[in-house]
């Protein structure tokens, strides 16, 4: 990887020239198109092989029987799909089992490992090899003289953090990052610590994923969340799935799709790639289907728009609904529109004024195909529209999600069973993080209540999100960076620039379960603080504690670990936050230590401070927990007009310039965020390969690129800088012309930090402008 215009600070000698993320391939690269159902025996075989490889044939099945069990088991640390409402005992999936087994490994990384390997040496390891060493066992501090991490006591580690934070000239010189795995109780304490210190610098993984969804839904409906729950999925007449690779990113959705097909619901998938989940499945816990190899369809229509063309497709569907309403009075729910919405006349005029030719050009779909989707929508009494990062990681992500709401409003698909917007959050409790205060743009109402309940004076100025944090690091304005979980260095865009930015910090602190790249790319001082995993028992003074999480559909429930901790020196995330807070705020009136003795005490405070969490401790112990109230679900809209707001944004021009391609980054199947399990991608037919790019065969021929031939990829940012990946293999794939796709985090190097959405501030990681040519 190289850049023609280098990031400020240049490159560091420790950074490899090419990103090396996955394991060493076990053989030559292979590509064989996948024609089998999602899940089923393929998933069972993959899980069995993984359990054998990890030596977890006993612990793995034990954990499986406790995962996602209401109030007695632990919540899967993978995706945020809701728990089954029918008491299913095997509410699990392939990737969830892998994620849990990866956490429960018997391998350990202690002082002996760090004594044997310098940071400079570890910088040459692949990210797979770093994580594969096992669980971190004790707090470590970086020793610059020896270039090794060395042991440090918890007290001394907290003192390091406390001195650094107390020594800042301005609390805004610190930034507190959060990944989605953090439980609600730790989340609340974390944001409380930051705000008591005096900063709203609370970047999180939502800034890179669903920020557009939250802003769009807030503007349209007055709530930053979807309005449906799993029971709505079970009663909808039509499901529209946009930009979601369910088999890999939310595999338990396959059960909902199979059940929808069985009851006769229409299922429309919209994605530039037809993923395995959009064809057929065998649900693993349906033992009859497994025994008979009986597959179930998971779609009735698949549409492949060009990358970024979803908004034009939705506009076309809305245009068709309005055209049909001229002759069919049932096509448009005029009573709903009149009573509950604002801005309809402007939106109708916009649709009427958008020619079909423009809709076809921008969507990359024919009018006939768009009308097929519109017909499904028009004939369904109750429709749900669901989406994931395929819609949000674009410049126009907010406008696209608002266009979804426009479409739903036309037929009154809101505030009733089986209908509404349903964003698919990709990480367990990422939604709970935002609900419980991780927000760099907090509302005055939230801050007023926090001040009243917790007796602090929180800052009122907006803080820094992920992109702004990296920019501030570049300028030397962030002195202390704390990462609660995740792998910030590898997840963020513009990898070399992010590395250089992290190294400008005086102190970086990573709270983690396993070794990762963010421990290797660090500040002048660095701490590794190992924490308990979701699967492990959390013993505190008042006994074993539970934590709560919020799923994608606003259900809050308890998670209780079942396994002995990997090390006696591990602390829980709430305890680590409290330790840092007491060291940084020695005169604080907040009872940090008292909170940690019994997490019910944290929840009692949260019940007073957070809207919707009233009577928290009782309600969270109900079967399946409780659902946070959604005013928009009750047709109460907390918008300036008091109504649901139609938006009237023009269609963006997403057609690539001549010679250019639109590239989207994505996960492989055997991967969870930045954690790589293997170099295989079963559902896309890939084996022993990650450094690849999927291309339309006609685009390959036009450029003289052979099947699986080496290519050089160059991205061009809006500031004119260019970034390169060399020697990747081109895979001919069923993807629209003008489009390409490849894996993150390797391809994050192509995503310039300056290329973020002006609507959401999200990095544009699904619409990167690139040229691809045969390797020089």
Describe the structure.
- By secondary structure, the chain is of the alpha/beta class.
- The chain folds into three domains: 2-31 and 656-774, Barwin-like endoglucanases (Beta Barrel); 108-204 and 431-614, Rossmann fold (3-Layer(aba) Sandwich); 211-423, Dimethylsulfoxide Reductase, domain 2.
- Helix content is 34%, strand content 17%.
- Strands 26-33-30-32-31-34 form a six-stranded mixed beta barrel. A six-stranded mixed beta sheet has the order 7-6-19-18-17-8. A five-stranded parallel beta sheet has the order 13-10-9-15-16, sandwiched between helices.
- A hairpin with a 4-residue loop joins strand 6 (140-143) and strand 7 (148-151).
- The radius of gyration is 25 Å and the shape is globular.
- Residues 1-17 have low confidence and may be disordered.
């Amino acid at each position: 990887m190289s850049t023609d215009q280098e990031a400020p600070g240049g490159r560091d000698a420790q950074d490899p020239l090419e990103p090396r993320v996955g394991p060493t391939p076990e053989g030559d690269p292979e590509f064989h198109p996948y024609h089998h159902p999602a899940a089923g025996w393929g998933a069972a075989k993959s899980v069995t092989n993984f359990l054998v490889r990890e030596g977890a044939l006993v612990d793995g099945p034990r954990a499986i029987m406790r995962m996602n069990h209401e109030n007695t088991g632990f919540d899967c640390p993978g995706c945020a799909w809701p728990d089954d409402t029918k008491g299913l005992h095997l509410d699990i999936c392939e990737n969830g089992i892998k994620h849990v087994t990866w956490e429960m490994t018997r391998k350990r990384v202690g002082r002996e490992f760090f004594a044997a390997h310098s940071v400079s040496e570890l910088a040459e390891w692949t990210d797979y090899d770093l994580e594969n060493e096992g669980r971190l066992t004790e707090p470590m501090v970086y020793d610059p003289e020896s270039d090794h991490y060395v042991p440090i006591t918890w007290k001394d580690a907290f003192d390091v953090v406390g001195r650094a934070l107390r020594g800042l000239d301005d609390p805004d010189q610190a930034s507190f990052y959060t990944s989605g795995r953090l439980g609600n109780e730790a989340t609340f304490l974390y944001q409380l610590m930051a705000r008591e210190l005096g900063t709203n610098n609370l970047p999180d993984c939502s800034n890179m994923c669903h920020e557009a969804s939250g802003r769009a839904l807030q503007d349209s409906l007055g709530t930053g969340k979807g309005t449906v729950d799993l029971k709505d999925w079970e009663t909808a007449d039509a499901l529209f799935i946009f930009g979601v690779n369910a088999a890999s990113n939310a595999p338990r959705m396959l059960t909902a799709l199979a059940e929808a097909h069985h009851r006769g619901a229409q299922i429309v998938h919209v994605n530039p790639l037809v993923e395995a989940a959009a064809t057929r499945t065998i649900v693993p816990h349906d033992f009859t289907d497994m025994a008979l190899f009986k597959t179930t369809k998971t779609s009735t229509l698949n549409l492949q728009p060009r990358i970024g063309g979803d908004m034009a497709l939705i506009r076309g569907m809305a245009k068709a609904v309005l055209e049909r309403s001229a002759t069919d009075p049932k096509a448009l729910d005029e009573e709903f529109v009149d009573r509950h919405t604002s801005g309809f006349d402007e939106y109708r005029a916009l649709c009427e004024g958008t020619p079909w030719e423009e809709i076809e050009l921008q969507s990359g779909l024919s009018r006939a195909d768009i009308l097929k989707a519109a017909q499904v929508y028009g004939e369904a009494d109750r429709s749900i529209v669901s989406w994931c990062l395929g819609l949000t990681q674009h410049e126009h992500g907010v406008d696209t999600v608002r266009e979804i709401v426009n479409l739903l409003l036309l037929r009154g698909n809101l505030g009733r069973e089986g209908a509404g917007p349903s964003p698919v959050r990709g990480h367990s409790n990422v939604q709970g993080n935002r609900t419980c205060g991780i927000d760099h743009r907090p509302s005055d109402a939230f801050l007023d209540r926090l001040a009243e309940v917790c007796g602090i004076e929180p800052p009122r100025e907006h803080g820094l999100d992920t992109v702004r944090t990296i920019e501030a690091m570049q300028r030397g304005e962030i002195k202390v960076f704390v990462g609660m979980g995740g792998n910030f260095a590898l997840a963020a865009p513009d990898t070399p620039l992010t590395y250089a930015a992290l190294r400008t910090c005086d102190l970086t602190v990573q709270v983690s379960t396993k070794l990762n790249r963010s421990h290797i790319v660090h500040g002048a001082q660095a701490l590794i603080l190992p924490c308990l995993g979701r699967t492990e028992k959390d013993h505190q003074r008042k006994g074993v504690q539970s934590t709560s999480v919020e799923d994608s559909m606003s259900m809050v429930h308890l998670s209780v670990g079942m396994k002995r901790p990997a090390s006696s020196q591990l602390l829980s995330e709430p305890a680590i936050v409290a330790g840092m807070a007491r060291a940084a705020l020695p005169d604080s009136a907040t009872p940090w230590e008292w909170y940690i003795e019994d997490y019910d005490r944290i929840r009692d405070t949260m019940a007073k401070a957070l809207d919707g969490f009233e009577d928290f401790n009782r309600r969270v112990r109900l079967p399946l927990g409780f659902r946070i109230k959604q005013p928009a679900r009750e047709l109460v809209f907390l918008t300036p007009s008091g109504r649901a707001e139609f938006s009237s944004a023009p269609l963006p021009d997403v057609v690539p310039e001549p010679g250019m391609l639109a590239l989207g980054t994505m996960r492989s199947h055997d991967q969870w965020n930045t954690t790589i399990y293997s170099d295989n991608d079963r559902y896309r037919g890939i084996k022993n390969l990650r450094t690849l790019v999927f291309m339309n065969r006609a685009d390959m021929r036009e450029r003289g690129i052979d099947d699986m031939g080496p290519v050089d990829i160059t991205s061009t940012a809006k500031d004119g800088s260019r970034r390169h990946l060399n020697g990747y293999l081109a895979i001919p794939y069923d993807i629209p012309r003008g489009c390409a796709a490849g894996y993150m985090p390797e391809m994050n190097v192509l995503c310039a930090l300056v290329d973020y959405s002006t609507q959401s501030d999200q990095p544009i990681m699904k619409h990167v402008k690139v040229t691809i040519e045969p390797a020089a």
